[in-house]
Amino acid sequence: MESILGLLRVRVKRGINLAVRDVRSSDPYVSANFMTKHLLQKLKTRVVKKDVNPHWNEDLTLSVADPNLPVKLIVYDHDLFTKDDKMGEAEFDIRPFIETLKMNLAGLPNGTVITRTQPSRQNCLSEDSCIVYSDGKVVQDLFLRLKNVECGELEIQLQWITLPSTRGF
């Protein structure tokens, strides 16, 4: 059995300018897919009806065993009688976030930016993403540009949940 490093809380905050897949709008939801060696974890947000700028503010918690694997988010349009339509996808690398957790951050002032990642061809970021020490926790806000679609972004936030048996790294 694979050992779990901890839990990654992915807060799916909102969608921005998502693609229209119904007559004038869409009924979007987000699916988070994360592979462990033997298991694909799939978690979903609720469906927001008729909204291309939905607010979910939902937490999806993934078990992390291998931090080298990316998390994939797929946005779908919920359809009642046909297969749900894809509305784009984005992947993000959790390695910089995990590396930050290994640092000794005790005594840092609240709001300290630990590291910053810039948008590039190698990532789905639409703007700079900062890993910040906030209220005794490490958090990262990301704005992800959706791929394989004409428009749309997702705003998410990452936070680590340490399991009592793992005591961090």
Automatic annotation (TrEMBL):
Its main location: membrane. InterPro entries: C2_dom (IPR000008), C2_domain_sf (IPR035892), CAR1-11 (IPR044562). It comes from the Eukaryota. SUPFAM superfamilies: C2 domain (Calcium/lipid-binding domain, CaLB) (SSF49562). GO terms for biological process: abscisic acid-activated signaling pathway. It is found in: Cell membrane; Nucleus. Keywords: Abscisic acid signaling pathway, Calcium, Cell membrane, GTPase activation, Lipid-binding, Membrane, Metal-binding, Nucleus. Signal peptide: none annotated. Residues 1-107 form the C2 domain. One of its GO terms (cellular component) is nucleus. One of its GO terms (molecular function) is GTPase activator activity. Pfam families: C2. PROSITE patterns: C2. Gene3D superfamilies: C2 domain. Belongs to the plant CAR protein family. This is C2 domain-containing protein. It comes from Salix brachista. The lineage of its organism: Eukaryota, Viridiplantae, Streptophyta, Embryophyta, Tracheophyta.
